[in-house]
Amino acid sequence: MRMSMRYPVAMGIAAIGLSAAGAISPAAAADDTITLGSAISLTGKYATNGLNTQRGYDLGVKRINEAGGVKIGDKTYKIAIKYYDDESTPLRTAELFERLIKQDGIKLLLGPYSSATTKAAAPIIEKYEVPMVEAEAASRSLFTQGYKYMFGIISTSEQYVESSIDLAAEMAEKNGKKPSSLKVAMVFENDPFSLDVRAGAIERAKKYKMQVVVDDKMPRDLNDISATLTKVKALKPDVLLVSGHEKGASTAMRQIKQLQVNVPIMTITHCESAKVIQNFGKVSEGVLCPTQWAETLNYKGKYFGTAQEFADLFKKTYEGYKEVPYQAAQATAAVVVWKEALEKAGSTDATKVRDALSKLDIMTFYGPVKFDSTGKNPVKPMVLRQIQDGEYKVVAPTKYATAKLEFPRKVAY
Question: Is the overall model pTM greater than 0.85, yes or no?
Fold first, then answer.
């Protein structure tokens, strides 16, 4: 049965619990239901990816419940999720996670959307010793604080644009140039995720002794980076790196078109959620888009089969998607992780489940999941896709590539 694209939004502290059958009241959850809790961004600047996250969570719940749910001992449980809308505001995220734990009695959590909101939630779950599987926060600094109850399934943020620097160095050598002769321009949102992306880029550029000629922060409203792009046109760098979530990506593409900016290697995060192909057409050609996951990868796991089979199901379930946002895929994978951990623990006790998560080692449609001592997943690589003929083509890492890198980027404005 096709699920509706229309979802009620949890405004303020009004909660929604969703199961395979649709919206339910948490109070109505029976003894055979395990309720997970989350506060995600259904309004505010992260709303697009917040909705993608919710849909990923809900599809995971739907499929697992249809497959029989979670078996603990001799009893089988369905899964439900209780949601709050954190309005893309970290302070609100912290308040709502505390509410989920203290007032609603939720002891198993799914992460919010974004590194900023997850940073607000992390001390709360640690304080109450309640485990959380987070699928949407890549900030590496989350995993340097000694947290014991947070488990992240995605590659950390410093890896997002490293492969773009590597590709630039590789192309330079192929063309008889030294990587150290290359110039790099960067513009990043002033948020934890993007600043960690920047740190990874800086480290990688230093490795090759490349010169960083532009290193700017986006304005708070993310509406205008024309000053940065004007400098880019004047300085003619070899690499342009942009990270500002979906709004920053849209602003970048719009003003790249207006100012007719062209750089041999141009990398922008959050291409899919910004719908750059649909919204900017040929101007998006040749843009490199880091992604946590792609449907063409040869990953396969229980419940959803291959990456492609998951993508087909997601697009069948939710109309209007040409490409499946990786935020949705990783959200679904987080629900799969919860099922596996609960069954491994043989209990819903928070401590036992936390211990089971720390020992988990599984393959999913999203890729391998195994947590190190810091709670991050070090075994899944980032993927770099390039927009070619209006489609996303995997060009790195080489062993996963489905197409050759088109270099340099050439666009007729």
Answer: no
